[in-house]
Specification:
- 32% of the residues lie in helices and 29% in strands.
- The chain contains 4 helices and 4 strands, in the order H-E-H-E-E-H-H-E.
- It has one domain: Alpha-Beta Plaits (2-Layer Sandwich), CATH 3.30.70.
- Strands 2-3-1-4 form a 4-stranded antiparallel sheet.
- It starts with a helix and ends with a strand.
- With 114 residues, the protein is an alpha+beta fold.
Length: 114
Amino acid sequence: MTVSAAQADNHEEPKFRHAVFFKFKDSAADNDIQRIVDEFMALKGKIDGIKAIEWGFSESVEGLNDEFTHCFFLTFTDKAALEAYVPHPDHKAFVEILKPHLDKVFVFDYTPKD
């Protein structure tokens, strides 16, 4: 495994970010959305390689959120951990809970740079 000079200087482990933005269907009830949030957050305890998950509602002061209302921000140990997460049975089960309520999704993956 190769580490950057900044990571070596700071003794940081390599990591990979996965940002997911949801716009729910108008028909999605509050309890359906809460279940999705709960199930997404529970993935950290089910799938190795997830270092952290956080989420929040859009509070865009510029109004540029394109109607996306929820963001989930995951930190993985590395890109390989994300690649293992996508086909993982617990992630696939979560997607099946999500799909009936989802209007649009936007995903952005990246390696943090200093």
